[in-house]
Design brief:
Number of domains of chain A: 2
Strand content of chain A: 5-15%
Largest interface: A-B, 35 and 37 residues
CATH architecture of the largest domain in chain A: Alpha-Beta Complex
Order of helices and strands of chain A: HEEEHEEEHHHEEEEHHHH
Oligomer: homodimer
CATH superfamily of the largest domain in chain A: Aminoglycoside phosphotransferase (APH), C-terminal lobe
Structural class of chain A: alpha+beta
Largest sheet of chain A: 5 strands, antiparallel
Distance between the termini of chain A: 45 Å
CATH topology of the largest domain in chain A: Aminoglycoside 3'-phosphotransferase, Chain: A, domain 2
Helix content of chain A: 25-40%
Number of strands of chain A: 10
Shape of chain A: globular
């Protein structure tokens, strides 16, 4: 929910004039996305999203993100296509920020995903993974064990407000996850932030993936683990195995999981909980009460972490062996 | 900058199905407007703004606001047209809030208005005033002297953070404004909140007025006074008489001001400063630091009030006598 950077009339005019996209009809800030400023730009030719990258995005990563979207679009994976200016640049500067123009995707994110959405998501995710193996750029996952440890360290002494002993509990978890973490699984580009608000649907069918600004090169199964957390728990904290089954079956309809991936899934899911838990804890602690952007409540992910801790086999997620 | 109320998939589906507007293609929260939640809704037929009215809007006033937009649209004044559902209702309930669907207006608001925008504004405002005399509904201005006095009273003891003696100064101003306030000037519907973000332009021409949720029946010249404050001061606080001249000339190109209106203009401008000053002071005092919606800084309007206090005649605003 955010527009952090205002764009002046002159700056917008000059920016748009650098592209072959027609004349501006409308320009409105969008109340979605917490990392960057997003505007909906309508011109006489088309609709676009104009993104101004704020401080949390490393400018050096932008060619990877934009290149990935362009590559996936070309592979038929529905996602925004970066638009180049008249000189062929996908990345420009606007209002002092790196800025890119991408095509507007029809569709809506689902506030309460149902089984059929999870099935569509699984199949779409597998398709994206398969396509990504032909993408040549790489980006290291910046949010793994080392980062979790550092972020958790920065929370020291401030977690009592959530629960006594939480810090010790999470530190122990972190070491267990680290020692069980797989070293060699099928890998490629993962989205790494595939929450419901980053997946669009139209008439019940998946119509697009957006917001690739955490994408990186990592284990495919870790992306699945992130989705299990983000799509298959109910608001009361309970795990919905029917949704997980739909997601995993959808995934395997396009790409079968290996025995190693299946064995690693509980550890990956525990790690995926830890990843979002530590960043949410950090944001919660470091955001003044009633702040401009409301941070997400970390408690949800404490529960998810504890749930995965007691999982012994991926079959408890509803995973069916594909013969 | 706001979306206060989330709309569930089911609620949106049911809502849209009540209208003859095609199928939903996209639904995005807009980061504009501080009073209500606004969504941009695109369907297979058209684009719309879906507004959910939050607590600051009195539900009883909504028929007036929606009726006014419908009336003005019919008179050729560019503004959003409320869309009726299949049963003829312009006002429905969505996510527990009163909600209305209005047509999407092309155009952008101007971040830094120039002379030519002020001229367009003046002419457009006069056109709206003239048309409004044929509108049959009435709504009292809820933000006049009595309300200012009450709001200022609620700030007692809390204005020292801005300036010592501010409360006393404003109370004296308020009484002077009240005693000089005109009793009989040409009246009709005024917009009463015509800041630059409520006026759209396209290719340098005024393309629409939006956000009629302060509109009421009052002196036309008071609307002009609000615009002088909102459009004709520079960011350094200086009054730009060239812009004011353009605005007033534009206005009088469509509707001549009477001698009484001209004589009252300095008092009305002083009152218009007081009106926005007291609400901004109140919001500033009552919003926690770093809050979700950043209140507008009141200091700008303290300066405007002091400027108008020393004005003796409307000619100091650049008003030219129309012979």
């Amino acid at each position: 929910m955010a527009v952090y950077t205002e764009v002046s009339d002159e700056d917008l005019g000059n920016f748009v004039a650098s592209y072959d996209i027609g004349d501006v009809l409308s320009f409105k800030g969008i109340a979605e996305g917490v990392e960057n400023s997003n505007y909906l730009l309508r011109t006489t030719q088309n609709s676009f999203i104009l993104t101004l990258y704020e401080k949390r995005v490393d400018e050096q990563d932008l060619p990877f993100f934009l290149g990935l979207m362009e590559f996936l679009s070309g592979e038929g994976i529905p996602c925004p296509l970066p638009v180049s200016d008249r000189e062929g640049n996908r990345l420009r500067t606007l209002a002092g920020r790196p800025a890119a123009l991408i095509t507007f995707l029809d569709g809506m994110w689902v506030r309460r995903p149902r089984n059929e959405h999870c099935a569509e998501l699984g199949a779409g995710l597998a398709g994206m993974h398969l396509a990504s193996t032909r993408f040549s750029m790489e980006r290291q996952n910046a949010l793994l064990m080392t980062a979790w440890r550092e972020i958790l360290g920065n929370c020291t002494g401030k977690l009592d407000r959530f629960e006594n002993g939480l810090q010790t509990e999470l530190e122990a978890d972190l070491e267990q996850i680290a020692s069980a973490w797989p070293t060699n699984l099928p890998r490629g580009v993962i989205h790494a932030d595939l929450f419901p608000d980053n997946v669009f649907f139209l008439g019940g069918r998946l119509s697009g993936f957006i917001d690739f600004y955490f994408a990186c090169t990592d284990f495919f199964a870790y992306d699945i683990a992130i989705c299990l957390n983000a799509w298959c728990f109910e608001t009361d904290g309970s795990f919905n195995i029917t949704k997980a089954k739909a997601l995993l079956r959808g995934y395997q309809s396009a790409r079968s999981l290996s025995a190693d991936e299946i064995a690693a899934l509980p550890t990956l899911a525990r790690g995926a909980s830890m990843r979002f838990l530590v960043t949410r804890l950090f944001d919660w602690i470091n955001t003044p009460e009633g702040a401009f952007v409301r941070p997400k409540n970390p408690v949800e992910y404490i529960k998810k972490l504890r749930f995965h801790r007691q999982i012994e086999s991926a079959s408890e997620y509803g995973l069916e062996q594909i013969s």
